[in-house]
């Protein structure tokens, strides 16, 4: 008789990167199912290194590709809709994900630790030697 392999699974609350409540003004554009383009101005509700949650009146579907432009910085990235739910005020809340993590897109001044150490973008924008003091080794105890 064989023993089943039990793998640890991610809990429902475990995330790839920390979420931050942050309203970032966005210009969202894409194509309707008819092929006609649309553009809508909105704000994020929650952001993380991998994407965000925003309200959007334009009907979109899971798997749809959109372009999101950070109005403050002018930076634009492609993203994919990963979740669509009706929000408390009746306006759909859209979860979207970047093709690859891009924490710098949100310009968070003090990003969570999990945004800076694992992200290639964070390493690319590092500004040389750190002014952080190196730990001092304590002398060994005498016997």
Account of the 3D structure:
- The protein has 143 residues and is mainly beta.
- It has a domain of 87 residues: Thrombin, subunit H (Beta Barrel), CATH 2.40.10.
- Helix content is 6%, strand content 35%.
- It contains 2 helices and 7 strands, in the order βββββββαα.
- A hairpin with a 5-residue loop joins strand 6 and strand 7.
- It is globular, with a radius of gyration of 21 Å.
- The protein starts with 19 loop residues before the first strand and ends in a 19-residue tail after the last helix.
- The N terminus is likely disordered.
Q: What helical percentage do the residues reach? A: under 10%
Distance between the termini: 56 Å
CATH class of the domain at 20-106: Mainly Beta
The major beta sheet can be summarized as: 6 strands, antiparallel, barrel
Shape estimate? globular
Order of helices and strands: EEEEEEEHH
Structural class: mainly beta
Strand order of the largest sheet: 2-3-4-7-6-5
- From the alpha-carbon coordinates, what is the Rg to the nearest angstrom? 21 Å
* Multimerization status: single chain
Q: What would CATH call the homologous superfamily of the domain at 20-106?
A: predicted glycosyltransferase like domains
Number of strands: 7
The appropriate CATH architecture of the domain at 20-106 is Beta Barrel
What fraction of the residues are assigned to beta strands by DSSP? 25-35%
Question: Which segments are poorly predicted (pLDDT under 50) over 5 or more consecutive residues?
Answer: 1-11, 122-137
CATH topology of the domain at 20-106: Thrombin, subunit H
Average pLDDT confidence is 79
């Amino acid at each position: 008789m064989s023993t089943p392999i039990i793998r640890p699974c991610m809990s429902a609350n475990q995330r790839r990167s920390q979420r931050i409540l942050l309203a970032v003004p966005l210009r969202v554009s894409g194509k309707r199912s008819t092929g006609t383009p649309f553009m809508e101005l909105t704000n994020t509700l929650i952001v993380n290194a991998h994407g965000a949650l925003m309200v959007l009146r334009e009907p979109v579907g899971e798997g749809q590709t959109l372009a999101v432009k950070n109005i403050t910085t002018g930076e634009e990235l492609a993203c994919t809709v990963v979740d669509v739910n009706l929000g408390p005020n009746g306006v759909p809340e859209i979860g979207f994900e970047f093709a690859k993590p891009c924490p710098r897109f949100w310009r968070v001044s003090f990003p969570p630790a999990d945004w800076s150490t694992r992200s290639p973008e964070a390493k690319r924008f590092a500004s040389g030697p750190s002014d952080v003091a190196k730990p001092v080794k304590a002398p060994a105890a005498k016997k």
